[in-house]
Design a protein that fits this description.
Helix content is 37%, strand content 4%. The chain is mostly helical and 207 residues long. It has a two-stranded antiparallel ribbon with strand order 1-2. The chain starts with 11 loop residues before the first helix and ends in a 12-residue tail after the last helix.
């Protein structure tokens, strides 16, 4: 069952995310920092309100809902008019969760504590996404859990393939649950949602 907070509503976990994001170099307060200027999505947590956000490309254009992962330089913006389309609202909502997760792994892995990482990834855990780790098979077939990818990168150093696979699949699986009447079949003819038994359009549980 989808839990839709009213615009302006913040759950305790959401408030904690806003507070803890100040610890990350990729947040909006650090835009002038030389080491973070060219990294991250620079999401301002203070503007995150359901139905009032859009995903902006690095050129400042509004991106439509899509299966393609959020790209470097994209961020979250405020709309001048209420967003009424279901998938458009959910796309921006997913960005508000996934962009800070991406920034934590890609830009600031040495900064987020275990507590912050658990808070950032709570949206994934309660929706049963990336909770199980399976490192059998070849590296391209291996699946890291939320805790597993954090520990792997923190302890073993950079692993771009594992990191990007985790981020892209976690984001796509949120979209599988959130988007309604959306075609998730990729150019190769595979549907990630169906392959992994995700109930398309069933709705997200919100922390």
């Amino acid at each position: 069952m989808t839990q839709l907070p009213k615009p302006g509503d913040y759950t305790p976990d959401k408030i904690l995310v806003v507070a803890l994001l100040g610890m990350l170099g990729c947040n909006s307060a650090s835009l002038t920092s030389p080491e973070t200027t060219n990294c991250g999505h620079h999401v301002d947590p203070n503007i995150v309100i359901l139905g009032q956000n859009v995903v902006l490309s690095d050129a400042g254009t509004v991106e439509p809902p899509q299966g393609r992962p959020f790209q470097q330089g994209w961020t979250l913006g405020q709309s001048t008019a209420p967003i009424t389309g279901h998938n458009e609202r959910e796309y921006a909502r997913i960005a508000s969760y996934m962009m800070p997760i991406r920034d934590a792994l890609i830009c600031d892995l040495d900064k987020p504590s275990t507590t912050l990482w658990q808070t950032l990834t709570s949206i994934l855990r309660i929706n049963n996404i990336k909770r199980v780790q399976d490192l059998s098979g070849t590296p391209k077939d291996q699946v890291y859990s939320n805790d597993g990818i954090y520990e792997h990168l923190a302890n073993d150093g950079p692993d771009e393939n594992a990191m990007m696979k985790y981020l892209e699949e976690a984001e796509l699986e949120l979209k599988c649950l959130a988007f309604a009447n959306f075609n998730f079949t990729n150019p190769e003819g595979a549907n990630h949602c169906e392959i992994h038994g995700l109930a398309q359009g069933s709705g997200l549980l919100i922390p």
